[in-house]
Design brief:
The complex is a heterodimer of chains A (200) and B (585).
Chain A lengths: L18 H9 L3 H20 L4 H4 L4 H14 L12 H22 L17 H6 L1 H12 L3 H12 L4 H8 L4 H22 L1
Helix pairs in contact in A: 1-2, 2-4, 4-5, 5-8, 7-10, 8-10, 9-10
Chain B lengths: L1 H16 L5 H7 L5 H22 L6 H4 L7 E2 L2 E9 L4 E7 L4 E8 L8 H12 L9 E7 L2 E7 L3 E3 H8 L4 H20 L12 E4 L4 E3 L36 H17 L9 H10 L5 H4 L5 H10 L11 H8 L20 E6 L9 H9 L2 H4 L15 E10 L4 E4 L10 E8 L4 E7 L5 E5 L16 E3 L2 E2 L2 E7 L5 E9 L4 H7 L14 E2 L2 H8 L29 E6 L3 E8 L4
Antiparallel strand pairs in B: 1-2, 2-3, 3-4, 4-6, 5-6, 7-8, 8-9, 10-18, 11-12, 11-13, 11-21, 13-16, 13-18, 14-15, 14-19, 15-20, 17-18, 19-22
The chains are: A mainly alpha (200), B alpha+beta (585).
Chain lengths: 200, 585
């Protein structure tokens, strides 16, 4: 079976400074560092978010805009982010995007229908990911993920959700090698599986 | 226990690396204590595969700009994962089927019959879905969503013949003979379903892990009578019959030409023609290959070379008249034991035992589990009884019902009830004396399989007297069920109860490979003779001496009485049929 290649976005050409370093530079007003963060994350985040946004809500706002806007909000509020590094930033952004998606869905549900009556408050059309794996499993995954430490969540988000390769993750998180990342991802996966198992 | 830890670490690595894993098998093999963990890992792997598909697939934000021909992320109930390949018209994706809960191959053809009749395309898809053959990819369905026609089918894991030859040069003679026969047999099935393949080439032949060659990639709108007006040649020029370049419609004989060219390529390790332009290729095809296959492969059986040369004759009328004629011509090549491939075992068409359905009943340590499985080969390989005395030995009662199973309920099924892919079935049976029970399945093509007993099941014959037994029973500590894996027509079951072993069925059972942990479950194919024998025994009326010729294969089970709950005063061997409707739409 063949495997496709990760998206060939501009991020792959950008120097892979550790995210924590980019954030530090960005906080000091380095516009290039800010752009690098955007270039690195936006293409992958919006692909990831496209699987999380219900189809009905998606028509209201392009997912790419949603992601970019969220990331910009996070970045312009840099002073409020505690850059603990390494780790934590990606999980923070991920949660911010998910919150933004939830707001979008809520807004969609309360939008009056054609006859002026608000549409159902129930969950609109499920997201593509819910369609693929089921809402229950997705809930279990999110709850289990929330029990992990931030660095573990970061690793899983970067590897399992955004499909960064080990070398990229090593550079972004400041880990020593691809093997170190691989082992850390596997440890985080084991903890996630354990947490999901307990949720059954 | 270290082996168990290794297994978990292997699964963690496979998720992390994005490698492919057969999770059904992993779950079946995993010891009870680890099953929850393995199930959670499978769930994470599915989520990871979904995300990988998003990251590696076409940019979803470019699709609006590209218009309706751009591949959608979600197509009907299928979620696109990786793109496996693309041609001039269609793309093939690995996709997640949320109904079947498995990965499938999805061929999306935005250009299929533009403006044409959906009904015709859907009919063709349904015809393809009715082809159930071990050497033809199983088509699960066809539909149109958002203006894009798609056909989803079995995801065959293996290498294409094109890649095999590119990586290793020509096939060995035994492999080539196997390819010749299996591909011819596949074409018989395709043509007898009223379809043409019309793009048979090495890239469309996949060899799976069991060595089975599988014909893949059905096109749409390639039926002979679907070509209106002057047809445009479609296919891969190197394997296209010369008459197709002159706008002659594709035919069975043009498929046979492609078969011959594929065999030529497999044996020679290169294409038959060396032309570098289409006009040059057309001229070459009219003359036939310049090189002699017998010269390139002096070890090839002359009979095989002669068959290939006849198949690729430039004039259609000089070729075999049909795939069946070709298959018959190939039969003598199987006479050479050194060249005879082992017939692949396969699972029944629709019903296969697949899933662990119920919760773990008893905690059994992994060592014991593995030990029990490993202890079975001797039993599985025991010789079949020399005879099958079917002697009425006093009346007994039989009480039998099929059930549809879910995690928390068992719903009784009546003859004629409908089932759907994903449904899980079991048989509850109780006899007032110790009995040998056999469950056979017959699909609409007339293929028959012995579903029970199986060497890997814990439940074995004879079943004890006066005990409610649920079949197929368990493997290790996990109860199993027969799972409906695809749709299509009717499913006939035959339930046989006998105080003594039934020799013919035991003989079929003895053909199964010995059991070992991790080996996929195999089903014994039941011969005509075994079923015919059942007609004349016990609770089934004897055929009269002047009985008409044997019924068509599709009706082999049809003359048995229907299964109907409890029956008293059963004498000798008791046989009943049970029919479930499994429509393909």
């Amino acid at each position: 079976m063949s495997h496709g290649s990760p998206p060939d976005d501009e991020a792959s050409a950008a120097p892979l400074l550790a995210t924590v370093e980019l954030l530090r530079l960005a906080k000091e007003g380095d516009q290039q560092a800010l752009e690098q963060i955007l270039v690195r994350y936006v293409p992958r985040l919006r692909r990831w978010a496209s699987g999380r946004l219900p189809v009905r809500a998606r028509s209201l706002m392009d997912t790419g805009d949603l992601v970019q806007e969220t990331l910009m909000r996070v970045l312009t509020g840099l002073d409020r982010i505690e850059v603990r590094g390494p780790g934590g930033f990606q999980a923070y952004v991920r949660q911010a995007v998910l919150n933004r998606i939830r707001d979008e869905v809520r807004w969609t549900n309360r939008r009056p229908g054609p006859d002026g009556v608000p549409e159902s408050l129930e969950n609109p059309a499920p997201s593509p990911l819910e369609n693929a794996i089921g809402g229950d499993l997705l809930d279990r995954y999110e709850r289990a993920l929330a029990t992990l430490k931030e660095p573990e969540r970061d690793l899983l988000h970067l590897r399992i959700e955004l499909d960064f390769d080990y070398e990229e993750i090593a550079a972004m998180t400041g880990k020593s090698s691809r093997d170190a990342v691989r082992m850390a991802v596997q440890r985080a996966l084991a903890r996630l599986a354990e947490a999901m198992g307990h949720e059954r | 226990m270290s082996a168990d830890r290794d297994a978990i670490e292997r699964l963690l690595a496979s998720i992390s690396d994005g490698a492919s894993t057969d999770w059904d098998q992993e779950l079946l093999q995993s010891p009870a204590a680890q099953r929850t963990q393995v199930a959670a890992l499978r769930d994470i792997a599915n989520i990871a595969a979904f995300n990988r598909g998003l990251q590696r697939g076409p940019d979803p934000f470019a699709s609006a700009a590209n218009g309706p021909s751009a591949a959608p992320r979600q197509w009907g109930h299928l979620m696109l994962l990786d793109r496996l390949g693309a041609g001039s018209q269609a793309e093939v994706h690995r996709a997640w089927d949320s109904v079947l809960q498995r990965e499938v191959a999805l061929k999306l053809d935005p250009a299929a019959a533009p403006g044409g009749s959906d009904e015709m395309l859907l009919r063709e898809g349904r015809a393809a879905a009715r082809i159930k053959h071990p050497n033809v990819v199983t088509v699960h369905g066809i539909d149109r969503h958002d203006g894009v026609v798609g056909m989803w089918m079995e995801l065959v894991r293996g290498d294409s013949l094109e890649r095999i030859v590119a990586g290793r040069s020509a096939l060995s003679i035994p492999d080539a003979l196997r390819l010749a026969r299996e591909l011819a047999s596949a074409l018989v099935a395709v043509h007898e379903a009223g379809l043409l393949h019309a793009d048979l080439k090495p890239a469309n032949v996949v060899r799976d892990a069991d060595g089975r060659f599988v014909l893949t990639d059905f096109g749409l709108g390639r039926r002979p009578w679907s070509q209106a007006g002057a047809p445009t040649p479609s296919g891969t020029p190197m394997y296209m019959a010369p008459e197709l370049f002159a706008s002659t419609p594709a035919s069975e004989r043009s498929d046979l030409y492609s078969w011959g060219m594929v065999l030529w390529f497999a044996l020679a390790g290169r294409h038959a023609f060396e032309a570098t332009s289409l006009p040059g290729l057309i001229e070459d095809a009219k003359r036939g290959p310049a090189a002699k296959l017998a010269t390139l492969r002096t070890d090839a059986p002359p009979a095989l070379v002669a068959i290939i040369e006849r198949a690729i004759a430039p004039a259609p009328e000089a070729r075999f008249a049909s795939a069946r004629e070709l298959a018959l011509a190939l039969e003598p090549t199987a006479a050479d034991p050194a060249a005879t491939p082992v017939a692949p075992k396969r699972t029944p068409r629709v019903l296969m035992l697949l899933a662990a359905v119920m919760t773990v009943v008893i905690a059994v340590v992994a060592q014991r589990y593995a030990g029990r499985l490993l202890s079975r080969p001797q039993e599985a390989a025991r010789p079949a009884p020399a005879s099958a005395p079917v002697v009425p030995t006093g009346a007994y009662t039989v009480d039998a019902s099929f059930f549809k199973r879910t995690a928390d309920a068992a719903t009784p099924l009546a003859n004629g009830d409908r089932v759907r892919p994903g449904d899980r079935l079991s048989l509850q049976i109780r006899a007032s004396r110790a009995s040998h029970v056999y469950v056979l399945n017959e699909d609409e093509q007339g293929e028959r399989y012995l579903l029970f007993p199986q060497p890997r099941f814990d439940t074995r014959n004879p079943l004890p007297a006066d005990s409610n037994m649920t079949l197929p029973g368990g493997i290790g500590t996990v109860e199993q069920a027969w799972t409906v894996t695809s749709a299509g027509g009717r499913e006939h079951f035959l339930v046989v109860v006998s105080p003594e072993p039934v020799a013919e069925l035991e003989a079929e059972l003895a053909t199964l490979a010995t059991a070992s942990p991790g080996r996929p479950i195999e089903y014994a194919r039941v011969s005509n003779g075994a079923v015919e024998l059942l007609r004349g025994v016990g609770g089934v009326s004897q055929l009269p001496a002047h009985a008409p010729a044997a019924p068509r294969r599709q009706e082999a089970f049809a003359e048995f009485k229907a299964l109907a709950g409890r029956e008293n005063a059963v004498q000798g061997t008791w046989v009943r049929q049970f029919v479930l409707v499994n429509p393909d739409h």
